[in-house]
Write a structure and sequence with these properties.
single chain, Metallo-beta-lactamase, Chain A, 2 domains, 12 strands, 19% helix
């Protein structure tokens, strides 16, 4: 859930949303957490009229910002939405349920943008010149991780992924090593310190140790530690990052709100 206050000023309090700007200036958005509100305001200011939204799954913290994404209400904007159906519903219904009573006062008919829904058909697809690969996540109710390859660079995004717990629709650990191999940047779930994990096993999130191990075994160039717990203050995240840096031969950092990374 989003948080605010002085204890969260450096890493920020929005829920999951990452913008990817490709070499050709295409805009890809990963997840629609509360961070998508500010991003949408900026995209309107920049007069962006074509947006690709890639969803990992439909848990609340990954979609709760969508009703406040202003480009979705503009007639001159096209939005291509990618993801997998959830709980027996099609992709469109899964997302539009967020913008409908009783969850929201404005109905889906208010979404005036030209929205196209693309259920992900396979493990790999293209968006123009951009190569997208996917992998099932180890998470309750399932989910998908993404690898984005463009202009000779690769970025892997594995949020909400419990590396050391098996899920029927998930993936085995060696599959994540193969999927992530030699990535220029890996952003991975590192919600728990080792002593916190035993009581949270099966909740769908990894320890910082497991995220570091994956980064090392996959020989990635840098690791972003992600999905900070809502009760973890800036000082607590600093401690988690410091612990990871002492473990890791791979450069690693805590992902923070507003951070920009160039590859």
């Amino acid at each position: 859930m989003p948080v605010s206050g002085r204890s969260f000023e450096r890493y920020g309090g929005n829920t999951t949303c990452i913008e990817v700007v490709t070499a050709g200036s295409d805009i890809l958005i990963l997840d629609a957490g509360t961070g998508i509100r500010e991003l949408g305001n900026r995209l309107l200011h920049e007069k962006r009229t074509h947006i690709h939204l890639l969803l990992t799954h439909f848990h609340w913290d990954h979609i709760q910002g969508f009703p406040f994404f202003k480009p979705a209400y503009q007639k001159n904007v096209r939005i291509d939405v990618y993801g997998t159906p959830c709980q027996g519903k099609d992709l469109r219904s899964c997302l539009e349920d967020v913008v409908a009573p009783p969850h929201f006062p404005i109905p889906p008919s208010a979404l005036k943008a030209d929205i196209h829904y693309h259920p992900i058909p396979s493990k790999a697809f293209q968006i123009g010149e951009i190569a997208i690969s996917t992998i099932p996540l180890n998470h309750p109710n399932s989910g998908i991780g993404y690898k984005i390859e463009d202009a000779g660079k690769s970025f892997v995004f594995l949020t909400d992924n419990e590396l050391k717990h098996d899920y029927p629709a998930g993936s085995a650990y060696p599959s994540y090593v193969d999927f992530t191999q030699n990535a220029d940047l890996l952003i991975h779930d590192a919600e728990y310190m080792p002593d916190e994990y035993p009581e949270k096993k099966g909740w769908g999130h990894s320890t910082v140790e497991d995220a570091v191990l994956l980064a090392q075994e996959a020989s990635v160039r840098q690791l972003g530690l992600y999905h900070h717990n809502q009760d973890r203050t800036d000082a607590d995240v600093d401690a988690l990052v410091g612990y990871a840096q002492n473990l890791s031969a791979v450069p690693c950092f805590g992902v923070r709100q507003g951070m920009e990374i160039s590859l």
